[in-house]
Structures are given as C-alpha cells and as structure tokens.
C-alpha cells in the first residue's frame, strides 16, 4: 500500500460483510473498484500493536490509469504531449501569511540543517506543519504548528523519516540524533504537536 502511494499505483478494494456496515455488503464480499492511496500513518490498534492506516480515494471510471511498469534497460517512451483529465479535488485552505511569517523569521533557513537554498528570485524553503492539516490529523494552521524546513527535511518529517523529541531534538527513524531544532526565542512551538507526530509513527 505504501509503495502504491509513492509510485502512484492504484489498489483494488474488496469489502467484506464484517466491516463497517455503512460501507460493507450485507453478506459475502463485494469488489468496489480501484482506489488511490493518498496518505498513510500508524496508530495503536485494539490489541495494543502498531497498525498501519491508509486514506484512499476512489478512482472514477473515466480516469486514465497508467502504471509505471518498465525495466532499467528499456525505459518508457513517455508522452510528448501529455493528455489532461478533468477531476474534482478537495483540499485544506492554508494561510499563506502564517507559513510565510515563520519562513521569514528564520530567513528561509532550514531549522534542522540550516541550509540556505538560493534561487533566481530569492530563497526557497517550506512551511512544514508538524501535525498535518488534512484528515484524519486535522492539525491547525497556526505558528505554533509550523516550522521552516528545506524540501528534504520537510519530506522526511511528513513521511516519518525524522521526529522531534520533547527537548526539540531531531532524530531519524533509527533513533539516531541528527541535530537540535533551531528555534527563535519568539517562536513558541507547541510540544503537543511534536508529541502527536511521534505517536503517528510509533516513536
């Protein structure tokens, strides 16, 4: 499932009668078609073990699915004029001003590696939400939940490759210390959000 999310491959969903009655058939099994894996996270299950959860979106019948199946010695041809399809999506509206405030506070430097990425129009960095905005996390779009990161560390944070301790120390998935999170004295990061992020990935 996680591999399918990263590679953009669809998954087939079959529902059984013992599942949620709102979505499950009354008896036996039912094939519900192709779904896209949008997100994944972990949480503690009913038996006390860590289990992986996924958020899926059903793929419409008219959507074009082109799995990336090729070998290194025979690269795909690709598309000179890629086709476009019309689709409807729902996204969380973010306050650009809040993210921009945090990035300016750190002069667009990553709070983990302190990298400064220069582009023709200035510097590039990303406002990373510690507790994600979308479902099922529903984190707030506030300064206390945002840190300034480079694209690499933003991706690692979002996908559980790094986490932040109660002491605002950054560790990787092997629990190896990476660095302290650089925090301006005026930036009050809420430790409840870093604790939520650790719990999401079982740290």
Gist of the model:
By secondary structure, the protein is α+β, with helices and mostly antiparallel strands. 17% of the residues lie in helices and 28% in strands.
List the helices and strands and how they pair.
Blueprint: H1 2-7, E1 11-16, E2 29-44, E3 50-58, H2 96-105, E4 117-119, E5 122-124, E6 126-129, E7 146-149, H3 151-158, E8 162-164, E9 169-172, E10 177-180, H4 191-201
Antiparallel strand pairs: 1-2, 2-3, 4-5, 6-7, 8-9, 9-10
Counted by DSSP, the helix tally is 4
Q: What's the structural domain tally?
A: 2
Q: List the strand order in the largest sheet.
A: 1-2-3
Spans of at least 5 consecutive residues with low confidence: none
Q: What is the count of β-strands?
A: 10
Q: What is the CA–CA distance across the termini? A: 21 Å
Instruction: Please state the structural category.
Output: alpha+beta
Percent range for helical residues? 10-25%
- Give the biggest beta sheet: 3 strands, antiparallel
Shape: globular
**H/E order of the elements?**
HEEEHEEEEHEEEH
Gyration radius from CA atoms, angstroms: 20 Å
Strand content: 25-35%
Task: Summarize model confidence as the mean pLDDT.
Answer: 87
Describe the fold and architecture:
This protein is of the alpha+beta class and 203 residues long. It has 2 domains: 1-90, no CATH class; 96-201, no CATH class. Helices cover 17% and strands 28% of the residues. The protein is globular. The model has no long low-confidence stretch (mean pLDDT 87).
